[in-house]
What does this fold into?
Amino acid sequence: MSMSLRLLAISAAFAFAGAAFAATPQASTAAPAKARTAQQQRMVDCNKQATGKKGAERKTFMSSCLKGGRVAAAAPSARETQQAKMKSCNVEAKTKALAGKARKEFMSGCLKGAPAH
It folds into this structure.
């Protein structure tokens, strides 16, 4: 019985010592934050701008950005330009009131970049 009381007392002592140690401020051990180098800051900025890009598009963008290329705005991807073409061709077909085969032919030519009829 006295052995279990001793273990209980020792466990309590360690628990209180651990709590006291954890509560003490450790200001002297924290290293001051180092300022980023220009390259590190550029990496952070480029990473923020590259959100949403994946694969080869991201790799190309990051390479250009880190070299100091166009940082503010990246060239639109092929998908974005195709979507823009689809929208403009749809609007044009709607204004011309095209339907059926005529609309299909017009849309095909418009998306290929053929001049308007």
